[in-house]
Amino acid sequence: MSDDTHTRVKDIETLSSQVVYKNKWLTVKEDKIRRASGQEGIYGVVEKPDFAIILPIHNHTIYLVEQYRYTIGQRMLELPQGAWEANPDADPCELAKGELKEETGMQAEHMQYVGFQYLAYGFCNQGYHIYLATGLSQGEQSLDAEEEDLKIIPMPLDKFHQKVVSGDIKDASTCNAYGLAKLKGFL
């Protein structure tokens, strides 16, 4: 049987859903479920709006941001990225342009769409759109309060590649965005 000719049965049926926590960035739900075998259980789900991640590259230099990540207690290097919680249905390209300007002050003459990935679909519905930004011009940053410690770190592309390979850059979205752009021939 193919999915084209028959309606596919869900592997897991949601019996009930309860919001157990919510703030302006995320919602945590606890769902009572029934598996195809009939066995019931619970599933914790984190709902977050999709985000954009940007590879800003100019003259063989990639522009990263460094900021303190509270959850791991360290300053980390990563690509500019973010979501607009107040407008979760924003056009992904406009979101990418906005996040690039906000975090780095840069504007891109060209935005090329690289692809879409999910962050961690084992527990979270959030995905991200990947863009390559070129033809960059520098302007002023416009940081959110949560980003007050953010620093722009220009890095030669080959050094960035080495830091990804060596594991010095640990942000999965950054590594994935770079890898996908490289595999698709954007870099």
Automatic annotation (TrEMBL):
Its cofactor is Mg(2+). GO terms for biological process: nucleoside phosphate metabolic process; ribose phosphate metabolic process. The keyword Hydrolase applies. One of its GO terms (molecular function) is hydrolase activity. GO terms for cellular component: cytosol. InterPro entries: NUDIX_hydrolase-like_dom_sf (IPR015797), NUDIX_hydrolase_dom (IPR000086). Pfam families: NUDIX (PF00293). Residues 47-177 form the Nudix hydrolase domain. Keywords: Hydrolase. The keyword Ribonucleoprotein does not apply. It catalyses: GDP-alpha-D-mannose + H2O = alpha-D-mannose 1-phosphate + GMP + 2 H(+). Belongs to the Nudix hydrolase family. NudK subfamily. PANTHER family: NUDIX HYDROLASE DOMAIN-CONTAINING PROTEIN (PTHR11839:SF18), UDP/ADP-SUGAR PYROPHOSPHATASE (PTHR11839). This is GDP-mannose pyrophosphatase. It comes from Alteromonas profundi.
